[in-house]
């Protein structure tokens, strides 16, 4: 142990790695509370909580490597992606947690936020109007009634760890709670559409693929401004703006 690695840092939270220990510093104590609560409830592998002293949560590293990263080809096998789908199904079938999560926002609130972001993207010249309009149309399919399930809420592929074809851990549960199951499946496969079939095969039940594609558009439209304002680049190859372009 000879260095401190900054894993992610922005105005809301920061994560540091020191050896095999991750230190999560969060300005919102509720997010830390939700994360610890969710990890205690879920029937899938999660990091071990070492200690808590607000605003810091210390967790142990999980074994294995990430399933992949947005904007980069995944080297994980089709079986590993299917195993991720099976783990997500196990999560979704777990008893409901007590609180709504990121994937459980109300339809009216979500539609209003979507309209506001679309207007901002066009008004500020961030994206062409036809690109935004097309993806707004695609996103409409996600704005429908859904049955609440236990969702992760931020199930990007870098939060899923594998060793060979086995899931060894799922991290970052601060957005977990009751929500739309297809939001999780869409987040997991965002930018990796080629592995959607593997994930659905592991998930083991029929899902509405149009809704998953709608969530790709919706999540990307909602994310561009936040990413730009917090030091990330949604225009990198394979990332959110390329996801939006693929809908054209």
TrEMBL record:
Transmembrane segments: none annotated. The keyword Plastid does not apply. Residues 27-203 form the Aminoglycoside phosphotransferase domain. GO terms for molecular function: transferase activity. InterPro entries: AGP_Transferase, Aminoglycoside_PTrfase, Kinase-like_dom_sf. Signal peptide: none annotated. Keywords: Transferase. This is Aminoglycoside phosphotransferase. It comes from Streptomyces viridochromogenes. The lineage of its organism: Bacteria, Bacillati, Actinomycetota, Actinomycetes, Kitasatosporales.
């Amino acid at each position: 142990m000879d260095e401190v690695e900054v894993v992610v840092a922005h105005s809301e939270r920061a994560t540091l790695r020191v050896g095999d220990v991750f230190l999560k510093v969060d300005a919102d104590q509720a997010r830390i509370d939700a994360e610890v609560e969710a990890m205690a409830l879920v029937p899938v592998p999660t990091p071990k909580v070492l200690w808590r002293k607000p605003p810091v949560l210390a967790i142990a590293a999980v074994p294995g490597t990430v399933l992949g990263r947005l904007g980069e080809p995944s080297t994980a096998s089709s079986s590993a992606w299917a195993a991720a789908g099976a783990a997500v199904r196990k999560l979704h079938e777990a008893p409901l947690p007590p609180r709504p999560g990121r994937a459980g926002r109300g339809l009216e609130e979500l539609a209003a936020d979507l309209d506001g972001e679309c207007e901002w993207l066009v008004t500020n010249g961030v994206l062409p109007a036809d690109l935004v309009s097309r993806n707004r149309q695609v996103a409409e399919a996600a704005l429908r009634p859904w049955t609440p399930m236990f969702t992760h809420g931020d199930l990007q592929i870098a939060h899923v760890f594998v060793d060979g074809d086995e899931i060894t851990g799922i991290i970052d549960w601060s957005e977990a709670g009751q929500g739309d199951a297809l939001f999780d499946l869409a987040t997991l496969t965002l930018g990796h559409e080629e592995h959607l079939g593997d994930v659905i095969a592991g998930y083991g039940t029929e899902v509405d693929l149009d809704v998953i594609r709608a969530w790709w558009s919706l999540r990307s439209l909602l994310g561009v401004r936040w990413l730009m304002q917090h030091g990330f680049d949604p225009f990198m190859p394979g990332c959110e703006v390329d996801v939006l372009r693929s809908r054209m």
